[in-house]
């Protein structure tokens, strides 16, 4: 019984470690330069950077108005493991955004950038999202 309790405590503490994930503060301008250097704008469009349109003519919008903030961890994961979580709207259009096996067509940039460039890129991307709280209308209950 004691072993089960200790095991449960250890497993729950592992989850707390994941919640505490944080990288140092990045530089937005350096992140923008990394975005341009890696030619992210061949498949992604974002404000103030011209979309170049790549071989697949993808135009996946980044940034803009969202109802849920893109967490730092979500953005890091999207860069280093783009197939981890693909939005349903991109899975539906399997011919352009994903491979036949349902994985992202995004190139692997893990060896093409430094950790500092990743930090700066994610800082830049996060700065491009604006939280927009949708209006709700509540009617009085009588």
Structural write-up:
- The structure is a single chain.
- The protein has 142 residues and is mainly alpha-helical.
- It has a domain of 71 residues.
- 42% of the residues lie in helices and 7% in strands.
- The chain is built from 6 helices and 4 strands, in the order H-H-E-E-E-H-H-H-H-E.
- The strands form 2 sheets. It has a two-stranded parallel sheet with strand order 1-2. A two-stranded parallel ribbon has the order 3-4.
- The radius of gyration is 19 Å and the shape is globular.
Brief digest:
The chain is mainly alpha-helical. The protein is built from 6 helices and 4 strands. Helix 2 packs across helix 6.
DSSP helix fraction: 40-55%
How many individual β-strands? 4
Poorly predicted runs are 1-18
Widest sheet, order of strands: 1-2
Overall pLDDT level: 76
> Number of helical segments?
6
Rg from Cα: 19 Å
Shape, please?
globular
Largest sheet descriptor: 2 strands, parallel
Strand content: 5-15%
Could you state the order of secondary-structure elements as H and E?
HHEEEHHHHE
Task: Report the end-to-end length measured between terminal Cα atoms.
Answer: 53 Å
> What structural class results from the helix and strand content?
mainly alpha
